[in-house]
């Protein structure tokens, strides 16, 4: 769709094997969410049993998404993921709108937010990073911003050097983070310092919730869980660089999300073994507090270090996959053509990586070292993100009708019901987002619509 036409021109290399692909999926899904989200879910549903139900439903819904993306990724293993799927199924404008949202808000904003979160976790070991280093008028440059920009620059350079190097770094960091989480969870559960009676805690006394109130809180808890599971779609963005993609993509997507779900359940088991429901609800960093209570100060420090490594791995993976959207769109002429140029010897989308890093760093400078500012900005993209998830899974049905002869090494389990159910849930989620955050939804849709004039301009130049 956007490969070089000259046989002498560099092309993307299929340098990511099953291990690197697994590390990419696992490493971009497991970020900061599992360290922060358990307390949010516990506050919303007020029951240990319902907490585990929320995590289970989040896993089931994410699995439904991966089952569908597995067919799309195996049939169209190209750079760009959803951009390619939507363009082939519905036409180029739909692929452009997805890519525009990712370029303007989604991926660049996410990279900035993850980098700030990394700096915040580093602040546990280096106090004072939130102090201003430079000041001019109302603008401040804090240590958090400097660390965030430095991390973006470092990992952009790593992925500039080669996808094999980026994949190797991702594999190493993911092994560290998964190993640390497993070891600490096992240590907490085997310590004998917790209490299994914590799992029998009844909801707090008080007036019974109405059905509507319960559903609203349950929906908010589901939103938090789905945020922790988000990122399972990232693997398809590097479809052109995965070896044996027809087998690797489906296997890694499905087994990867199941592995993440198991790790999340184990972590929650350790948290509630160590802490009662009320303590989980009140803790801003529940995993660290659980480890500290059971294992002492070193346990909290070790968990904070695991969170730091986890966030670093997520940042590396996000930088690696995000640039492929720039590259794919530019290859089709929908972004500036130089962004589709590959490094002549390293075979990486070098200019796309640099521009992505500049945009993400610019957002760090603009929004400051306040992660809440990034979260507000990413709220603008939330409606569109889930809207595109729903539209993309339906692309499986559209492509089977429009392109029946397209090779499909993997067929979606439960077709067409799995895609239809996922799309229905995505629609309900979008409605919930619009009702709960009407201003953010409106701004996000306006930013999306603002891309249409640019699309019309670029189409005329193709």
From TrEMBL:
Gene3D superfamilies: Amino acid/polyamine transporter I (1.20.1740.10). It is a multi-pass membrane protein. The keyword Membrane applies. One of its GO terms (molecular function) is L-amino acid transmembrane transporter activity. GO terms for cellular component: membrane. It is found in: Membrane. InterPro entries: AA/rel_permease1, AminoAcid_Transporter. Pfam families: AA_permease_2 (PF13520). The chain crosses the membrane at residues 15-37, 49-70, 104-126, 138-162, 168-189, 252-275, 302-327, 348-368, 380-399, 411-435, 441-457. Keywords: Membrane, Transmembrane, Transmembrane helix. Signal peptide: none annotated. PANTHER family: AMINO ACID TRANSPORTER, SOBREMESA, ISOFORM B. This is Basic amino acid/polyamine antiporter, APA family. It comes from Methylomagnum ishizawai.
């Amino acid at each position: 769709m956007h490969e070089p036409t000259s046989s002498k021109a560099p092309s993307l290399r299929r340098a990511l094997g099953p291990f690197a692909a697994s590390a990419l999926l696992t490493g971009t899904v497991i970020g900061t969410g599992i360290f922060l989200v358990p307390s949010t879910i516990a506050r919303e549903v007020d029951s240990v049993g319902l907490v585990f139900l929320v995590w289970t439903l989040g896993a089931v819904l994410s699995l439904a998404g991966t089952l569908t993306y597995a067919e799309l990724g195996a049939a169209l293993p190209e750079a760009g993921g959803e951009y390619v799927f939507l363009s082939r199924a519905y036409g180029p404008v739909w692929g452009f709108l997805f890519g525009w949202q990712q370029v303007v808000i989604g991926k660049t904003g996410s990279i900035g937010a993850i980098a700030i979160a990394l700096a915040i976790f580093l602040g546990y070991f280096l106090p004072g990073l939130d102090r201003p280093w430079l000041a001019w008028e109302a603008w401040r440059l804090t240590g958090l911003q400097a660390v965030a920009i430095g991390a973006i620059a470092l990992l952009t350079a790593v992925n500039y050097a080669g996808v094999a190097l980026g994949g190797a770094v991702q594999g190493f960091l993911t092994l560290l983070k998964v190993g640390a989480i497993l070891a600490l969870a096992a240590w907490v559960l085997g310590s004998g310092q917790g209490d299994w009676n914590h799992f029998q805690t009844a909801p707090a006394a008080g007036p019974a919730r109405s059905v509507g109130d319960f559903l609203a809180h349950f929906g908010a808890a589901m939103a938090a869980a789905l945020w922790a599971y988000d990122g399972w779609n990232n693997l398809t963005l590097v479809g052109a660089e995965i070896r044996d993609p027809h087998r690797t993509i489906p296997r890694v997507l499905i087994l990867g999300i199941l592995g993440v779900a198991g790790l999340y359940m184990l972590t929650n088991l350790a948290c509630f073994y160590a802490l009662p429901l009320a303590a989980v609800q009140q803790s801003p960093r529940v995993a660290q507090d659980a480890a500290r209570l059971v294992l002492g100060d070193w346990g909290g420090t070790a968990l904070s270090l695991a969170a730091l490594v986890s966030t670093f791995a997520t940042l590396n993976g996000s930088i690696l996959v995000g640039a492929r959207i720039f590259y794919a769109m530019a290859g089709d002429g929908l972004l500036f053509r130089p962004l589709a140029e590959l490094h002549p010897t390293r075979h990486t989308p070098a200019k796309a990586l640099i521009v992505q890093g500049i945009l993400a760093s610019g957002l760090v400078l603009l929004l400051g070292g306040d992660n809440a500012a990034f979260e507000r900005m990413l709220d603008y993209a939330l409606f569109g993100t889930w809207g595109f998830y729903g539209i993309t899974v339906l692309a499986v049905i559209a492509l089977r009708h429009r392109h029946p002869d397209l090779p499909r090494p993997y067929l979606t389990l439960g077709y067409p019901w799995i895609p239809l159910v996922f799309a229905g849930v995505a629609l309900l989620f979008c409605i919930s987002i619009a009702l709960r955050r009407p201003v953010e939804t409106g701004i996000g849709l306006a930013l999306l619509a603002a891309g249409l004039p640019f699309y019309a301009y670029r189409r005329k130049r193709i």
